[in-house]
Amino acid sequence: MKQSIRAAARLLYASLSVLLFLCVVLQFYWAGLAVFGNASHWSTHVQFVHLFGFNLPVVMLLAAFAAAHRRWAYWHLLLLMLSTFLMYLSANLPLGSLRALHPLVGTLLLAAAISNCYRSIHACRKRTISA
Question: Which positions, given as ranges, span the membrane (predicted)?
Answer without folding.
Answer: 12-36, 48-67, 74-94, 100-118
